[in-house]
């Protein structure tokens, strides 16, 4: 449960393109870390290296270390499938499996891991849905397709699916950017609750959101088009938004560019 | 950008229906001042010629649509009219007789029992072989093959569809048939208790069996099933694939939870289209299958004729209306059969998966 992540001097490439350069960040357990920065600065790319999802794109590779409680997830005999089972991810677009019921969506990860016991699955489904603040809304239609829910409910369903396997870390890639303000608020409240049990890393375009939900904020930027993105500053969220150390950070959060 | 800007940037922009009727509506929506009258006149002229073009195109499109439906209906009616007198003069059971004697117009004895058996058996066998292979190829092409290999491989599969069926027939008759003989004999000897592998009405050593024909048909319908299935698999939304992988699915588990459910209806529909093609295949089957004097025993080691190959084999002798009508009646059954199979295939393949 709730492990810490240490990103050590990570460089990320897509084929010959150097996307991200020399990132070093530590994410403490049971803590929300927000990645902010302008489009194309590599914040989502860094997030996707934390559960080895960037490898899905052909030609993508990583140099450096990502340590999960001291263990390098890029170690030679580490299976990316195992990494993804312990580090959950929620995407920008809610993506429940369209052919599965709400219940089956929630327990999909457990079924993949080999759990077949129906009673256990039902228990986990309820616990995960309660954990995602969705239980009261869907408890009467657990066998209906997940695609029948509203966008915000679908996103909470995806969060339930991610926490059902009790991951060590929860990654969120702009989880609210496709949602309306009320659904966004529901997700933000949920993040506040989830950080009591999970280590959370969230990428967001919305600086107010970063300020509202995170304990620590990392600001990414790039020197110019075609240049690799880099980490400018990482500090307590309060400090980043009140008294940042770098001029670029201040310019960005005060809306002078980006 | 308001409506006025739009009109200004495209001064000649035609108004869909009745230029004058449109202007007040735009004004009402954006509170713009009304358009000057000269502009309205110009647009009205443009609208008239556009409406004429619209009308012509509409009739052309509707006409083509009607022509297709009409020609299918006419073919059906033609088959029906031509076959009814022969069916009335038939002295054997049309559905259950294995005879097909049409030399004496005064004593027509014909039935479709064997034609139907051979047609369905060879096509179903072909489908059974082609479906798993097509699924495997489609999955390989979309998710397993190295990126550089996908294009050439897909191209090779498409080329299979371009080979003329006469070539398939010759290859099946001269190469595949003889090559399969030892395997076919082994199947027959060890599994003859199973009706499909029982000794049939032609010699297995000759190779001219439904077994050979079915394998050739399987190869012939492979491209269409593969191509349609591959296209469907390729359209699986990336966010579902990523969702499965992020949950810790292996590649096969990801395919099972996202790709297969998404492409299933297209796969079944494509298979039905392939079956439709196998049912109607003529030349290859005509060349491969040996004929036999005895009736079909519903074994894969039977010979005989399919509907299509029977009609093709007799086509040179179509001189008298009554004997000809017997073949046309057989053609009518094939027409209905393929029509139904294709309709089912289209219906299933056209079904959209929500996602």
Automatic annotation (TrEMBL), chain A:
One of its GO terms (cellular component) is plasma membrane. It is a peripheral membrane protein. Residues 5-247 form the ABC transporter domain. One of its GO terms (molecular function) is phosphate transmembrane transporter activity. Keywords: ATP-binding, Cell membrane, Membrane, Nucleotide-binding, Phosphate transport, Translocase, Transport. The keyword Kinase does not apply. InterPro entries: AAA+_ATPase (IPR003593), ABC_transporter-like_ATP-bd (IPR003439), ABC_transporter-like_CS (IPR017871), P-loop_NTPase (IPR027417), PstB-like (IPR005670). It holds the Pfam family ABC_tran. GO terms for biological process: phosphate ion transmembrane transport. NCBIfam families: 3a0107s01c2. PANTHER family: ABC TRANSPORTER I FAMILY MEMBER 17. Part of the ABC transporter complex PstSACB involved in phosphate import. Responsible for energy coupling to the transport system. This is Phosphate ABC transporter ATP-binding protein (PhoT family). It comes from Tamaricihabitans halophyticus.
Automatic annotation (TrEMBL), chain B:
Pfam families: BPD_transp_1 (PF00528). It comes from the Bacteria. InterPro entries: MetI-like, MetI-like_sf, Phosphate_PstC, Phosphate_Transport_Permease. Its main location: membrane. GO terms for molecular function: phosphate transmembrane transporter activity. Residues 116-345 form the ABC transmembrane type-1 domain. It is a multi-pass membrane protein. The chain crosses the membrane at residues 59-81, 115-141, 153-184, 204-229, 326-349. PROSITE patterns: ABC_TM1 (PS50928). Residues 1-44 are annotated as: Disordered. GO terms for cellular component: plasma membrane. CDD domains: TM_PBP2. Keywords: Cell membrane, Membrane, Phosphate transport, Transmembrane, Transmembrane helix, Transport. It is found in: Cell membrane. GO terms for biological process: phosphate ion transport. Coiled coil: none annotated. Part of the binding-protein-dependent transport system for phosphate; probably responsible for the translocation of the substrate across the membrane. Belongs to the binding-protein-dependent transport system permease family. CysTW subfamily. This is Phosphate transport system permease protein. It comes from Tamaricihabitans halophyticus. The lineage of its organism: Bacteria, Bacillati, Actinomycetota, Actinomycetes, Pseudonocardiales.
